[in-house]
Design goal:
Elements (H helix, E strand, L loop, with lengths): L4 H5 L16 H19 L6 E3 L3 H4 L6 H12 L4 E3 L1 H5 L3 H4 L9 H19 L2
Parallel strand pairs: 1-2
């Protein structure tokens, strides 16, 4: 069996954003402040804010450690921000079924899956 570098690198996932592990990191603090500001601005205009975590190919195929998504989820929970992490759902489908191979944009199936999940989340939070 012939391996490509891509296959071998996925055996040892990289963390391209180590700052998300350090709560005191200024880049991570800025990211959190920006998300809060966008939420506050949205809500000040009467809109509901929903943080949607959309995984990239490198996270789905195991090349990158998904710690960034875990950090964002923990932040959203602490900040009482509604969120959806699409990582688990997207991992349950083959990449080529939901994403275009050239650039990682959704194919129609991927867009439908994401839209249905977002719709369900919004319907459930309306009941609060």
């Amino acid at each position: 069996m012939r391996f490509r570098l891509w296959d071998l690198r996925s055996l040892f996932p990289q963390n391209p954003f180590p700052q998300y592990l350090d709560r005191d990191n200024s880049d991570w603090q800025l990211t959190q402040a920006l998300i809060r500001a966008i939420r506050d601005e949205s809500e000040s205009h009467g809109a509901r804010f929903l943080l949607v975590l959309l995984p990239q190919r490198e996270y789905l195929n195991g090349m990158y450690d998904p710690v960034i998504y875990q950090s964002l989820e923990q932040f959203a929970q602490r900040a009482d921000i509604d969120y959806i992490n699409l990582m688990p759902l997207m991992r349950s489908h083959r990449w080529g079924d939901v994403f275009y191979p050239e650039d990682g944009h959704f194919k129609p199936l991927g867009a439908r899956i994401a839209a249905e999940l977002i719709y369900r989340k919004l319907q459930n939070t309306d009941d609060r």
